[in-house]
Write a structure and sequence with these properties.
Layout lengths: L2 E6 L6 H5 L11 E3 L4 E7 L5 E10 L2 E6 L7 H15 L3 H13 L1 H6 L10 H10 L5 H19 L17 E5 L6 E5 L4 H19 L3 H9 L14 H4 L4 H8 L4 H14 L15 H9 L6 H10 L10 H10 L10 H8 L7 H17 L15 H11 L1
Antiparallel strand pairs: 1-5, 2-3, 3-4, 4-5, 6-7
Helix pairs in contact: 5-11, 5-13, 8-10, 10-11, 12-13
Length: about 400
């Protein structure tokens, strides 16, 4: 059973609606359990160890946070776990004020309890996942997030409390490769110090790639296609776990492409202290335009990625506009003459009446249109997550016209 921590929440709070409010809940290592209405994922203790936790709605106004495989924890570790849960579910006085302000402008969202969008337990994870959203389809994004969590398992092993049957033969530092003859999975064990382990892992992977003759995309497809959707293989990697990886290895192992350089540089800058995330979040954080300029200075962060991070930090006045936004404006609002070139200007005008909560109003429409197409997303199986794409959403227009 493990240790149970409890966290008070507003009586109107719904774990299912808060968790299943934004696509990050579909990305590993999050695991939504639609049958029970619980959220399972690894979180980190103060010393960096990963422990599996399950969040449950125990009663109105009360969440239970079960830490599996642990009988007792020091007070600072308990606080660390609860702090991460609060961040994920946006449980703070500041977030309460934002939700109240938005609901004053959007009665329908208030009626549905919509306004808290799930995010990650750390800003670093949010920033990495924002990078994974760029210039690719949703299915690819899900694959890349999963591959990063598989990689973390290969580097560190299973989190404490992980008792599920894994798709690996070894628990400690297993390296997944593909056989050149049968293309079946096998395990290569690497043991040593962290840097040495990383080098051995990279070498073993490169050798397996050369022998198999597979392209990176085929490697990724072969891996994700052989594991059940209801298994997890690790925590989300930390800056310290990513900083010593070679971008080329990360690109091939996780199918990241050009994003691998961005991830490694981000991890190195955060781990070294050259990038102080405290400037983005916390009591000493920058505000407004100063914050936006600071995020834009992060290597590889363009307007879309920056706007997404700003939204995750509670700045809802800029909408991260992409092809999905373009589709939504045309399909939902019937907006004419909108192009990639004028998209940002048009979307700002459409949602100006909700200022400074433009993104929340926009996302309420997006999420409701998803549910109109796919049904209640709190009940959707993980094996179907990749179906939420612009192509499938265009079918809604055809079917209802």
């Amino acid at each position: 059973m493990g240790l149970v921590l409890r966290l008070a929440v507003p009586h109107s709070f719904s774990l299912a609606r808060v968790v299943c409010s934004y696509g990050f809940y579909m990305m590993q290592p999050n695991r939504w359990l639609p049958e029970s209405g619980d959220l399972e994922r690894p979180l980190r203790l103060k010393d960096g160890r990963a422990v599996v936790t399950i969040l449950s709605e125990e009663a109105p106004g009360m969440l239970a946070v079960r830490v599996l495989g642990v009988g007792e924890l020091p007070a600072d570790d308990r606080e660390e776990i609860l702090s991460q849960v609060k961040r994920m579910l946006r449980l703070s006085d500041e977030e309460d004020l934002l939700v109240t302000g938005f609901h004053a402008l959007h009665p329908k969202a208030k009626e549905e309890g919509f306004g808290r969008l799930i995010r990650s337990p750390t800003l670093f994870e949010d920033m990495v996942k924002s990078i994974l959203l760029c210039n690719c389809g949703w299915g690819r994004t899900l694959q890349m997030a999963r591959a990063l969590c598989e990689l973390q398992f290969e580097l560190k092993g299973a989190p404490v409390g992980y008792t599920k049957v894994l798709a690996y033969e070894k628990i400690e530092f297993a390296v997944t490769t593909v056989s050149s003859s049968s293309k079946k999975r096998k395990s290569v064990v690497a043991r040593s110090t962290t840097k040495s382990r990383v080098k051995r892992l990279q070498k073993a992977f490169n050798e397996s790639m050369q022998g198999a003759g597979l392209a990176p995309s085929e490697m990724l497809e072969a891996e994700t296609g052989t594991q059940a959707f209801d298994t997890q293989v690790g925590a989300f990697p930390t800056p310290e776990e990513l900083k010593d990886l070679e971008p080329d290895f990360l690109s091939k192992r996780c199918g990241l492409g050009y994003r691998s350089k961005m991830l490694v540089k981000l991890a190195q800058d955060v781990a070294s202290g050259d990038l102080e995330l405290g400037k983005f979040e916390g009591p000493d954080a920058l505000q407004g335009d100063s914050l936006r300029c600071a995020v834009l200075k992060v290597y590889g962060f363009g307007p879309f990625c920056c706007a997404n991070v700003m939204m995750l930090l509670g700045n809802y006045n800029v909408i991260p506009a992409d092809s999905e936004t373009l589709r939504h404006l045309k399909q939902f609002h019937g907006t004419q003459g909108v192009t990639k070139q004028n998209l940002a200007k048009v979307v700002a005008a459409v949602y100006e009446k909700y200022k400074p909560y433009e993104f929340l109003a926009y996302w309420w429409e997006i999420w409701r249109s998803y549910e109109q197409r796919f049904g209640d997303l709190t009940r959707m199986a993980a094996s179907e997550f990749h179906q939420i794409t612009g192509v499938n959403m265009k079918k809604l227009n055809a079917e209802t016209s």
